[in-house]
Amino acid sequence: MASEASGSAYSQPVAITSRAATIAAMEPMVSPSTSRDAPRAAKPVSSDRMIIAAVPEPSSPITAATSIGVLLAIAGSQHGYFTTRQAAELGISRRALAWRAARAFVDRPGYGLYRLAHWPIEANDELYELQARAPFGTFSHETALSLLGLSDIIPSAIHFTIPESSRFGPRPGVRLHRSRHFADRDRIFRDGLWISAAPRALQDSARIGSDPDQLLEAAREAKARAMLTNEDMARLSEHRLFRRAGL
Fold it and tell me: How far is CA 167 from CA 2, 5, 86, in A?
C-alpha cells in the first residue's frame, strides 16, 4: 500500500445521511476556470429531495453534483474525512479539491487526505483520521481493549496493525504492528473504526507485555459480556498469564 491515504471509496459501508446530502445540494464542488463560473447560491430544496439527489441511479451517468453528494456521504461515514483517491474514483480532480480547500470548504490535514471544514471535532478524531489514511489497518492491542470498553489501560501510543506487505509508514504517536495473518473474524467494524475482536486484542496485548492485572480484568469482563467463546478461552489458556489465572 502506498504511504499516502489511499482508501477506496467503497472500502467501507456508506450511509447517505441527510446532513451530507444537504451539504452536497448546497455546495457543489466544482473548480471554475474563470470567475464567470463561480458557484451561485442554490435554491432551497426539501430534505427528501436532497437525499434523493445525492444517490445516482445505477443506469444514469454520474454528474458533478451527484459525485459530490456521494463523496460527502462517504466523508460522513468516515467522520468528516475523505481521501484524494476516493474523490478521484468519483471523477473529482485534485484541482477541484484544492479550489475548495482555498475557500475553506474543506481542510487538508495531510497529503492525500481532506476533512470537511465544518465537521465537529470528535473525541476519537485522531483515530478517524488514521483510519481514513489506512482503511486496511486495524486498531489493536491495548487500543482495541480500550475501544471495546474492556480496559482502563491508557496506551502510551495508538496501537495499529497493518498487513505485513503494507508500505504505510510510521506516524507520531502511533505504534505500528505488522501481521501476515489477520482473519476477518479477528476484527469488528464499530463506529467507523476497524477494531481487533476481544480474543485477538487480549492475545496481542499479552504478547507485548501489557499490565497483567489489567489484562486479566479485561479477560473476565469480556467473558462476562459473552465476547469470548469456549474456543477463544482455550486459545487464551495457551498463554501462561491466562492459564495461571484459570480462565
Answer: 6, 11, 19
